[in-house]
């Protein structure tokens, strides 16, 4: 005879099915890593949008150094050179951050996707189906977890490069504004 279980309030509860709990936990872990992968992709898109915004401002065109009569707004040629060099370095850093964020990891060629681990295998015939399902789901979760960790590290590095590039561009613009002569 099975003993009846009660919760903290004294309400009868069904006994837990350990297989179901194991599978549910594996599925929750997999779904959590899928959410993390989506967050990583969102931050990558933010970097790309930031680069497009900077390019949209027209910083790559350097003709704004001159007024309509082609008289330089920044009188000192060395200062012009420094500002232009800072802008070029800043834009190169922004582009580099995008390359770092989106480049595939070393050894990722031929790398199977995490979801390939979800398929049940014939070599696990002796195991019960719930155990196979839990094992496969945990395998997929572990694979996606390691991919996400590598992606977070690359993204962190890319964001640092992006911040450095953006800061250099802001410094160049501040120099231009403070040293330019009115037209």
UniProtKB/TrEMBL annotation:
Keyword Transmembrane helix on entry: yes
Transmembrane region(s): 46-66, 78-102, 155-177
Keywords, ordered alphabetically: Membrane, Transmembrane, Transmembrane helix
The keyword Transmembrane appears for this protein: yes
The protein's name in its UniProt record: Uncharacterized protein
Protein source organism: Mucisphaera calidilacus
């Amino acid at each position: 005879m099975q003993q009846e279980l009660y919760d903290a309030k004294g309400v009868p509860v069904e006994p837990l099915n350990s297989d179901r709990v194991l599978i549910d936990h594996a599925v929750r872990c997999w779904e959590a890593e899928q959410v993390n992968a989506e967050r990583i992709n969102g931050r990558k898109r933010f970097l790309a949008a930031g680069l497009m915004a900077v390019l949209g401002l027209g910083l790559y065109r350097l003709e704004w150094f001159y007024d309509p009569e082609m008289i330089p707004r920044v009188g000192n040629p060395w200062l012009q050179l420094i500002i232009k060099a800072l802008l070029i370095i800043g834009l190169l850093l922004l582009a580099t951050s995008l390359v770092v964020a989106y480049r595939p990891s070393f050894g990722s060629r031929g790398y199977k996707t995490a979801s390939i681990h979800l398929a049940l295998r014939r070599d696990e015939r002796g195991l019960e189906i719930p155990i196979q399902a839990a094992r496969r789901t945990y395998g997929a979760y572990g694979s996606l977890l390691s991919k996400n960790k590598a992606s977070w590290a690359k993204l962190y590095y890319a964001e640092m490069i992006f911040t450095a590039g953006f800061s250099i561009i802001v410094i160049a613009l501040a120099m231009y504004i403070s040293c330019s002569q009115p037209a």
